[in-house]
Amino acid sequence: MKLTFYQIYYHLKKRYDARRISCNPYKIKVERPVYYRDGQDCRGHMVLIFNEELMKIGLDSSLWKDCIFICFGEVDDIFCRIDTDLLVLDERIPREQVLNDLQEIFQYFEEMEYSVTEVFMENQDFGELMECFGRIFETPLALMDASFSYVALADREGRFANGFMNESSTLPMQMVSQLISDPAYQRSMTLAGVYTYTLEQVTFLCRNLFFEGKFIGKLMAVSCTSPLNNEYHKDLLLMAAGYVERMYERFGAFHMADRSLDSLHELLRLTLKGSSVPGERLRSALGNLSWSEEDAYYLIQMRPSYRYDKSLYDKYLCPQMEQQWKDTCCVAHNDSLMVLLNGSRLHMTDFQPELAYFLRENLLAAGISRKFRGFDGIQNAFKQTDIALELGMRKDATPWYFRFDDYALDYILIHGRGVFEPEQICAPGILKLIEHDEKMHTEYYKTLYCYLQCRYNAAVTAKKLFIHRSTFLNRLERIGELIQTDLEDFRSRLYLSVSFYILEEGKQ
After folding, report:
1. Whole-number pLDDT of residue 176
2. For the chain, which residues make up each domain, given as ranges?
């Protein structure tokens, strides 16, 4: 393994009063140390040399730019003006002792390299890779993706977790907004070398990461007060970044779920735009996530408050949602964030409390469609989310989310059936009864419809259905359990009545 000047200098400085005389601007790397012998080809090596021997090397020699020198004894001022890596030690220090110490330094980094190789050979993840780097970094280190989510940390001090990380393992929202709006930060994303950036009065050493010319994230180390420590960690960042980019090239993503979602992201965007989606591509994309066309889905549309920077969607909120809830697919569409939720794997009743918290924290309002199956239902679900947001915000802007089912009646009273098929607009409870009747060979739909026609008179309804009154009441109780609707509520009765009207009209 080859090391840089500062990798050697940093560790040697811990053992000796080493003084840097000059530095090579080309930042070369060298192999294990050798003793200098006149006429010997020692290019590319760390070279141990006495001051008398150093003076004999011609100023035009290629050794100056190809070697790192450790000189025993004081040197002439002329060497301060030579572009070479030169350290000076006390001439009384035994060369053998220094040689052994240098061998230990090289061994230290070679052990790290061996650990990294094992990570690659065993196809381990970025967390394992960062753990290897954590053994040589003496300052907190973080790997962050382009969406401001932490991929992995090497942070024994907990510096990143203390103020620079939220519960979702991402950079807090206010800091993200600050970065996005900072022109200096935007310019920094194109830099190839190590640079510094200060956030919340903490200075970080940063190295951007790229794949096929595209920015994919960055390595960040907390800056040190010592200039030598910073130079050392800059060289480490450059080295570590090379390994991270190689691993990214192998996997194609920081998170394996990212690759699985890529195809579905594209298909969801196409569907929202009204384009048709090839069935084979859809089945393949869903299969990557162990999803199915037969699964139940919900579509959620999130809109920002006026204070919100819409440019954050793709970079921050979409990945954050997908990380927090594994059974979601999120894309930015027009001025909204669209979330496809697999209701067969993540139940809406469990999801809603967490959704409310997410919306409140990120200053968003959401419209939720009713449950549907297959991608064919996405366009209508999109319309439902629009309606839920429009009517919900008009009636009461207090809630963070609005369900289409709660405003379907309002839509019907204004627009009639509108653009929807009966099963897309009618009371879900009635649709449950139809499904139950088909499956169990019951007559719950007919029973409830008759009950409404008889103005909620149990005796008249039972007589009309040719059943005993107690039989009817038992059946009505079962219907109430199935549709989960308060039949004494005026609004619920109205929605049921209108829904029956629409469904019955559709039969004619």
Report:
1. 86
2. 3-108, 123-254, 293-418, 426-507
